[in-house]
Amino acid sequence: MLNKILQSLYEADIRIVTGTPDGWIVPLIDALANDDRFQYIPAAREEECFGIASGAVMAGKKAMVMVQNSGFLNSVGCYATLCQKYQTPFVVLIAHRGGINDSNSYDPNKFRAFEAVTHGMNIFVHNARWEDLPAILPKAYARSIGAGEPTFVTVTEAPPT
Questions:
Q1: Going from the N-terminus, what domains does the chain have, and what CATH number goes with each?
Q2: Can you list the residues of the chain whose pLDDT is less than 70?
């Protein structure tokens, strides 16, 4: 599955990926970091990811951000004043923790807060399964170009092993 995701990103010409680790996305981070076709830029904090991706877009590159839902919540100010204001198109892949498929008992508040904030900010969010990401991520990028804004894709369960 990871190879299919990487191939779909490559075919969509998405070469710059940035993110912060979450247990659900670490395998994808590792795969991207070890694939010479991509430049994976690790960030210390989630709002840095939105700055990196916006800068890449402004330089004419295609980019993707990978964070956990609570990481996006940490980044709302940067997102609103940079990504929304300057209408930077890229994909945001979010580990949407705290739902029914998450075994961590401490994550439900993250789920509810993310839902409320993205709804309140009128952010387009598409929920996908890991196995559907090879088809969904290029469509999400195309949507971000057409809409002139980032497109959020969430996964609400751990990747298949």
A1: 2-101+111-154 (3.40.50.970)
A2: none
